[in-house]
Specification:
By secondary structure, the protein is mostly helical. It is built from 14 helices and no strands. It has one domain. The radius of gyration is 20 Å and the shape is globular. One of its GO terms (cellular component) is plasma membrane.
Length: 309
Amino acid sequence: MQKIKTILKLVVSVGGLIFVFSRVPFSDISKNWNLSVLPWLIPMLILTELGMLIQANRWKKMSIEGPEIPYRSYYAYIALGYFFNNLLPGGFGGDVVKSVAFGKRYGQTSQSVASILISRILGLLALFVCFFCAIPFLSLQKAIPSVYHVTMICMCGLCIAATVLCLFSDKFHLDIISKRVPFVAKLQNSLAIYRKHKGILFFAVMDSIWLQLITIATNCLYFMAIGHPVSWAAVTVFSGIIIIVSMIPISINGIGIREGVQISLYTGLLGIPADIVLSAGLLGYILLLFQVCQGAVVFAIQKKHSKAG
C-alpha cells in the first residue's frame, strides 16, 4: 500500500512539473539566470546556514532532561534531517529519522521526538503570525481572494489545537494503545513536560519567528537576484500559502505542486511573468542542495563509525 501511495505521489509531482514546464519553457526560465545572480547567493547561503544554526539552538534548548549534549551534535542531526527529507517521500521523513536516531544514540527517544514535534508546530504558528501581520499591507496593494484567508485561518486553528493537544496529551488516557505501543505513554509525558517550562517554550517561539523571518528574507533575495524585487508583504503572505499547500501529502515533498502555486499567486495575482517567478523559485534548490550536502557528510561519517564499531 505504501508503494502505491509513493508511486501516486511521484505521478503527481512529475505531472505537475510537466504541466508547468509545458506552459513555461525552461529556456525562458534560464535566460533570467546570469552572472549577476552569483553575488546574491552569498547572503542566501549565509541566511540558510543561520537558519540551521537557530534550529539546532532551538532543539538544544528544548532538550530539558537527560545528559548535556554538545551543540554540534544537534546541528549534525539537523543536517541529517535535511538529507533524509529529500530521500523520503514526505516533508516529515527527515524529522522522524533525525529525532529517532538522535534519541537512540543519547537514550532519550521520547524527548527527542517530542521536541521535534513541538518545534514543527511552533514553526507553523510563527508562519501564521507572519502571514496575518503581512496580509493587511498586501491587501492595500491587491485584493486577496477570501479562499486564502479562510484556508489560513482554518489551518491556524488546527495548529493551535495541535499545540494544546500536545501540551496536555498526558490528560488523555490511551491505555489500549499504550499497552500495545509503550512508547506512546512516554511520548505523552515528554510532551506534557513543556507545560512546566514556559520560559523554554517562549524562547522556542522566538527562535521559530526568527526562522520564519529568515525564510521571508531569503525568498525576497530570490527575486532581487534576478532583478525583479517583490514587496516583503507579498513574499510573506505567498510564502505562507505555498508552504501550507506544499504540506498536503499528495506529491513528493511538494515538488510540482509548489511551482504551480507560485505561478498562480505571483503571476495570477501580481501579474509577474511566470518565467520570472519560476526563475526566482528554482534558486531555492541551490540552498536545498547546500543543506543536503551537509547532511550527506554527516550520514557518511556516521556510517563509517558504525562500520568501525
